[in-house]
Write a structure and sequence with these properties.
The chain has 13 helices and no strands. By secondary structure, the protein is mainly alpha-helical.
Length: about 290
């Protein structure tokens, strides 16, 4: 059975007694014609890239080509290790790992676009932090990535994952929805809980503008990935507690798309408004592009 919506995905999983990740794996095998082992191997490589990016970001002062961002992930890791942090455990780890991945991306390092390069930190941050917290196997983490892929597939086909088309809600919002669903599965949640977690995460990021300073995926994008990871973890906990989204996930996705079409173009990756047009944003733009 093929799915096009989150509700269909949940229904298939419930009917077959499978996780969302397993359903997505089945569809990937059918759609691509690749053997199961090859499909899993490709995703395992993505997981390896995610791990490498996080390790690099938290152990080195990774600096972007522009020099605007860098070193914050290591700074946060050192602070977390000091025992003085206000947020602890899986949430702070997720925030830190997301920051690390985003800094590696800004430095032109290797990352996995999940669902885009600009939002590439959220899913690795949540997945690897939750994996560490739960002691998850590689198999569990790979299946969780397929779960996230299924949610991303629906969002991309029924709405958008492009900041230029729908604002940052379409990038960080989609990434947070994907991440919430993935970690719920890792924690033993049901397909229905995955759907509610994705909806809760996405609906709380609706309307988020895409206003990159100097046209670069750095400010506010890098730190926005961290905030998206925090939202995803909290949304997952809410869903696992039995809290349901009053608005179904597919309707939240539709609302996100409609909101994106209503956002003025100046707030959709053009750097013509928002943080990009603050006095400091303007100065950074001049500095980066050597404007007098």
């Amino acid at each position: 059975m093929k799915f096009r919506t989150v509700s269909e995905l949940v229904h298939i999983a419930q009917e077959q007694g499978k996780s969302i990740g397993e359903v997505v794996i089945d569809q990937e095998v059918r759609e691509t014609g690749r053997p199961l082992e090859e499909v899993l191997s490709i995703m395992e490589k993505s997981l390896h890239v995610m791990k490498a990016a996080v390790e690099k970001g938290i152990s080195e002062e990774v600096v972007s080509r522009s020099g605007i961002t860098g070193g914050d992930a290591k700074r946060l890791a050192d602070y977390a290790n000091s025992g003085k942090s206000l947020s602890k455990g899986v949430v702070l780890d997720a925030v830190n790992y997301a920051l690390a991945t985003s800094e590696v991306n800004a430095s032109m390092g290797l990352i996995v676009a999940t669902p885009t390069a600009g939002s590439s930190g959220v899913l690795p941050g949540c997945l690897l932090a939750m994996g560490k917290h739960l002691g998850s196997s590689q198999k569990d983490m790979v299946e969780a990535l397929f779960n996230a892929g299924g949610i991303g597939y629906v969002i991309a086909n029924n709405a958008t994952i492009s900041g230029a088309a729908g604002g940052c809600q379409a990038e960080i919002g989609a990434a947070a929805a994907m991440s919430a669903s993935a970690v719920i599965q890792m924690a033993g949640g049901t397909p229905e809980q995955c759907s509610h977690g994705a909806a809760i995460a996405l609906k709380n990021l609706l309307g988020l503008a895409c206003d990159p300073v100097a046209g670069l995926v750095e400010v506010p994008c890098v730190k926005r990935n961290s905030m998206g990871a925090a939202v995803a973890i909290v949304a997952a906990d809410m869903a696992l507690a039995g809290i349901k989204s009053v608005i179904p996930c597919d309707e939240v996705i539709e609302a996100m798309y409609k909101i994106g079409t209503m956002l003025p173009s100046c707030l959709r990756e053009t750097s013509m408004a928002g943080l990009a047009k603050t006095p400091t944003g303007e100065e950074l733009n001049k500095k980066v592009h050597n404007l007098s």
